[in-house]
Amino acid sequence: MSPWQLELLRLMRTRRLVALFAVFVILGFGGPVLVHYLPELLKGSTTNGAKLILPAPKPVDGVQNFANNISSLGTLVVVMVVAASVSVDANPVLAVFYRTRVRSGAGLLLPRFVTVMTASVLALAFGTVGAWYETSVLIGPLSFGPLAIGFLLEAVWLLFVGSSVAFFSSVTRSVLSVAGAAVGMFLVLALLESVPGVLSWMPTRLAASASDLIGRPAGPIWHAVVIAAAASLLGLGTAVNRLGKRDVPRSR
After folding, report:
1. Longest dimension (CA), the chain
2. How many CB atoms lie within 10 A of CB 237?
3. What is the pLDDT along the chain (252 residues), one digit of tens a residue?
4. 157-185 b/e with 16+ CB inside 10 Å = b?
5. Which of 12, 55, 139, 203 gives 20 to 30 Å between its CA and that of 121?
6. Are 79 and 207 in contact (CB under 8 A)?
7. Under 8 Å between Cβ of 139 and 129
């Protein structure tokens, strides 16, 4: 059995594939449904004596709900699943097993990384189609072109997320520490968005691209694409190099 077949089986048998598709598909189909029915659910509600009236939802609202959830919850799920997949040395016994059979860092990491990232992007695609369909049916017609471009940009964001997790897997060993380091870095990047002139260059700018492209002009978003792509290649290359040189962990 090849390493690629092994990683595909691992992805399915550990239910990581189910976790990815369940989250993205539920967010894709559920977001527009919530936006559509929210005014009815809150109809007649009052706040400090004032009656709460929500405007009728627009098609962009359904996509925006999905995109915002993907940039937060979806990203977190991808971080956890990728960390569990690419943390080669998290289990010392299994690490020894793999490292005595695969000598190169590329052989250790790339089958894991490519398999889990392909599944993540496919899950995003299914969720995006679900959001487009439910929005068109429940709220109003929605052009699929800008949404498709937004999907591609969000896929670049997921690749940046995955390569960042891969990099941290070469710095630390446990799944939780890898995921925690990656989430911490994303929080710092989100905070840096408030610095004047920095937003258009931040990879986090891509996390909710679908709603940006449909709701308003995207602005100079391609700066973020270049930075995210370059950082992804650098992070993945560094991870491959470091993992190839790392000593075999000792069993406890």
Report:
1. 70
2. 15
3. 688 888 889 898 888 999 999 999 999 999 888 887 776 766 655 555 555 566 677 888 888 888 889 999 999 999 999 999 999 888 888 888 888 788 788 988 999 999 999 999 999 999 999 999 998 888 888 888 888 888 999 999 999 999 999 999 999 989 999 999 999 999 999 899 888 778 778 899 888 877 666 655 556 788 889 999 999 999 999 999 999 887 765 655
4. bbbbbbbbbbbbbbeebebebbbebbbee
5. 139
6. no
7. no
pTM: 0.89
Q: Mutual orientation of helices 75-86 and 16-41 as an angle, nearest 10°?
A: 170
**Residue 107 CA to its chain's centroid (Å):** 24
d(CA 55, CA 19): 34
